[in-house]
Amino acid sequence: MLNQIKGLHHVTAMAGDADANNRFFTGTLGLRRVKKTVNFDEPSVYHLYYGDEEGTPGSVMTYFPFPHIIRGRPGSGEVGETVFSVPEGSLGFWKERLASKSVQATPDESFGQKRLRFSGPDGDALVLVETGNDTRAPWTGGSVKDDEAIRGFFGASMRVRDSGATEELLKFMGYEPVDTSKGIKRFAIPGGNGADYIDVQTLPNMPRGDLGAGSVHHIAFAVENRAAQLEVRNALIDTGYQVTPVIDRDYFWAIYFRTPGGVLFEIATNEPGFARDEDPAHLGEALKLPTQHEHLRSYLETSLPQIKD
């Protein structure tokens, strides 16, 4: 069993309109945009990162906004809900705030916790959950104050047709089964970074999901450094998984593999972080380009959709 994984690192999803996506996560949810860059494989498309003040691993939601992408079709083999942690007693504030932004939110309860379920601009399945022991510092430079602000991820859920192999993988990665509610199994990483929970929902008759706007592209798990990442990579390969080589993503190093249930997993390093090429006081303000795309700057600065900050 591995002991290098420390919870979630980030969650990356697909979007349609970049400006609407930015307004929702910075304006409605009050997160900080910590990086404005482009997709490594398709530089005509932004890669936008939202999180806490520093973009701490476990707090960062990222998006690829493709202007003409179709809506995703929810199904099995993908992340279902992305769950954010908020302070106890704050869901009333959030329900009113979301309503004021024309976002309908539905209160519910799961695993004995009060939650608020709602959709992002592209139908993204998002949840706020009240947690009483989350000591992570939120971003308060936006329009949401400390007593209500999002602390980071609580976790995420996955929909699979057969959970057996996925559960074994999570256990191998260091997650422990901690509870079951309404047929959903909860796993937690001991001593994690706060973004510690994965819920596994088994839906044997659900068709596979189709990737599109509102879909999660992949979910990333945090390791401290490249040495820990290499240990995880070697262990996964020894277990039979097809794992990519290490890829430099500028703000972290990444490896990827597909799970038995169909979900794309990434293992990402906490180093070097989002301040490697930008002053911490001005994260996410300038367009940052990977070295291999820097020669496209003049073109991209005029052709990328406008984001109104």
From TrEMBL:
InterPro entries: Extradiol_RC_dioxygenase (IPR052537), Glyas_Bleomycin-R_OHBP_Dase (IPR029068), Glyas_Fos-R_dOase_dom (IPR004360), VOC_core (IPR037523). PANTHER family: RING-CLEAVING DIOXYGENASE MHQE-RELATED (PTHR36110:SF2). It comes from the Bacteria. This is Dioxygenase. One of its GO terms (molecular function) is dioxygenase activity. Pfam families: Glyoxalase (PF00903). It comes from Pelagibacterium lentulum. Keywords: Dioxygenase, Oxidoreductase. Residues 7-131, 152-270 form the VOC domain.
